[in-house]
């Protein structure tokens, strides 16, 4: 398993070793010792899975306060552009984002620590799965509008299909004012 640092502290891209033969493939999608060696001492308490058709954008979501969640995300099938935005109060990279293409052929993953908004754009019909460090709590859910002008994320989708709530989140500037500087 190769764990790569990104330009944003505590966000990691993970590339497992994939063993292929005539029968198919095998990989380890998580190994606690490898993660702990990089300082990711996360206990996972919930696994989620979603299916999305191409052209859908989900996010940018977060859980706040005592319900904040770290996530380990990947696609089982398909291809997505995965994005996380640093919302950690006082962080040197506050308001910056990191994106990576998660692809079933690479079987790569992204580790998103607490204090980040997260979302993805579906480039090819996808089954998306993620581990969470905390249970979902509706009252602690928040978000940043997906097409925020300040972030200027190129989602790679011309006319995305969005949920109603994902069209109503505040922009980063408004979130920063409301939250008094972040999560």
TrEMBL record:
Q: Where is this site: Participates in a stacking interaction with the thymidine ring of dTDP-4-oxo-6-deoxyglucose?
A: 136
Which top-level enzyme class is recorded in the Swiss-Prot or TrEMBL entry? isomerase
**Which pathway does it serve?**
Carbohydrate biosynthesis; dTDP-L-rhamnose biosynthesis
Q: Which GO terms describe its molecular function?
A: dTDP-4-dehydrorhamnose 3,5-epimerase activity
| One Pfam family matching this protein | dTDP_sugar_isom
InterPro entries in alphabetical order: RmlC-like (IPR000888), RmlC-like_jellyroll (IPR014710), RmlC_Cupin_sf (IPR011051)
Q: What is its EC number?
A: 5.1.3.13
**BP GO terms, sorted:** dTDP-rhamnose biosynthetic process; polysaccharide biosynthetic process
Active site residues per record: 61, 130
Q: Does the keyword RNA-binding apply?
A: no
Q: Does the keyword Isomerase apply?
A: yes
Which cellular component terms (GO) are annotated to the entry? cytosol
NCBIfam families on file? rmlC
Report the sequence similarity comment from the record. Answer: Belongs to the dTDP-4-dehydrorhamnose 3,5-epimerase family.
Q: What subunit structure does UniProt give? A: Homodimer.
Query: Which purpose does this protein serve, as stated in its record?
Result: Catalyzes the epimerization of the C3' and C5'positions of dTDP-6-deoxy-D-xylo-4-hexulose, forming dTDP-6-deoxy-L-lyxo-4-hexulose.
Q: What is this protein called?
A: dTDP-4-dehydrorhamnose 3,5-epimerase
Q: Which organism is it from?
A: Cyclobacterium qasimii
